[in-house]
Design brief:
By secondary structure, the chain is α+β, with helices and mostly antiparallel strands. It has helices at 20-27, 59-67, and strands at residues 3-6, 10-13, 46-51, 56-58, 75-77, 87-91, 117-119.
């Protein structure tokens, strides 16, 4: 079982293959945003990798980061990442202080849209 460390919150065992956005909200109990429901459109689910950033990236994530001009090293969309190894992240977009009513809509168990994998 992969370990997910969330800065200033703790370390959690996460079922292999679980979407990072779900691990953050369900397993770690954080208030991570995911306004678009986890389909790589809004960038509210951004995290910064401290360790364990995946080498692969979905084409949807790559395009959304490019379109939104998000170029900071290690910043990724948690909705497009499967927990298949140990990782450590810093939350960027949280409900607290956002002015939003809720974290976002329901997130499917599988990465959406269907992932086409590429390299960063």
């Amino acid at each position: 079982m992969p370990k997910l460390t969330v800065e200033n919150i703790g370390t959690f065992d996460v079922p292999a293959g679980k979407r990072l956005v779900q691990a953050l909200t369900q397993d770690a109990g954080t208030d991570q945003l995911h306004a678009c429901g986890g389909v790589a459109r809004c960038t509210t689910c951004r995290v910064e990798f401290i360790e364990g950033e995946p080498e692969k990236i979905t084409e949807a994530e790559k395009e959304t980061l490019r379109a939104r001009e998000i170029t900071e090293p290690g910043v990724r969309l948690s909705c497009q990442i499967a927990c298949d190894h140990d990782m450590s992240v810093r939350l960027i977009s949280r409900l607290e202080g956002s002015g939003r009513k809720n974290q976002g809509g329901a997130v499917a168990d599988e990465i959406e849209p269907a992932p086409n994998w590429t390299t960063k």
